[in-house]
């Protein structure tokens, strides 16, 4: 997400000289780490086989959660990359935003630790469903977070639609400002 949010400024000479769909830049920043992911995933599969762990059928849902994670990163990047063009200080705050977002997400703790009355509000964080989905698919942890996945998916799609509209509106001024 950080790479994608800084992609427009990083490729400023290209934006100034050649016209092409500018959406390619944040999209490439989101998709390029997939190579690292697949190498790491192959190592994980090797370790699963080595230790004799038998995965359940839920592993087949991994591509769906991976797609949701990519769409989440793209949605946030479509908001941050045009802002980074107009307000250069955004580029310096992106690592802090990502770190705060990590602590506001169930990376090291499950959603079940969040009090019941706060879970609907907590599930508005689009990455919550992705992390819980990966946890469920890989570790087989029983969860009743189906509504969390649905809420996260809805939030990701809303963020993505808004981000696309915002990016397209700001796109025509990129070459002038960069």
The shape, in one word, is: globular
Overall radius of gyration: 18 Å
Q: Supply the number of structural domains.
A: 1
Average pLDDT metric: 86
Query: What does the main sheet amount to?
Result: none
Number of strands: 0
The termini sit apart by 20 Å
Question: How are helices and strands ordered from N to C?
Answer: HHHHHHHHHHH
The structural class is mainly alpha
Task: Give the number of helices.
Answer: 11
Characteristic key phrases:
178 residues, mainly alpha, 11 helices, 71% helix
Can you describe what's shown?
With 178 residues, this protein is an all-alpha fold. The radius of gyration is 18 Å and the shape is globular. The chain contains eleven helices and no strands. It has one domain. The longest helix has 26 residues, at 146-171. It has helices at residues 2-5, 7-10, 12-17, 24-31, 34-50, 62-86, 90-103, 119-122, 126-139, 146-171, 174-177. Helices cover 71% and strands 0% of the residues.
A few lines on this structure:
It contains 11 helices and no strands.
């Amino acid at each position: 997400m950080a790479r994608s949010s800084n992609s427009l400024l990083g490729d400023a000479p290209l934006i100034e000289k050649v016209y092409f769909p500018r959406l390619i830049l944040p999209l490439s920043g989101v998709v390029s780490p997939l190579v690292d992911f697949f190498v790491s995933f192959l190592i994980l599969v090797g370790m699963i086989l080595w230790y004799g762990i038998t995965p359940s059928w839920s592993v087949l849902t991994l591509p769906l959660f991976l797609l949701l994670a990519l769409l989440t990163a793209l949605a946030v990047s479509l908001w941050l990359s045009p802002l980074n063009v107009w307000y250069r200080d955004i580029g310096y705050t992106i690592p802090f935003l990502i770190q705060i977002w990590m602590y506001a997400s169930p990376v090291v703790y499950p959603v079940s630790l969040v009090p019941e009355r706060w879970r609907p509000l907590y599930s508005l964080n689009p990455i919550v469903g992705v992390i819980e989905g990966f946890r469920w698919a890989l570790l087989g942890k029983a969860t009743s977070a189906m509504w969390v996945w649905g809420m996260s998916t809805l939030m990701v799609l809303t963020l993505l639609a808004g981000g696309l509209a915002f990016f397209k509106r700001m796109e025509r001024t990129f070459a002038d400002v960069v």
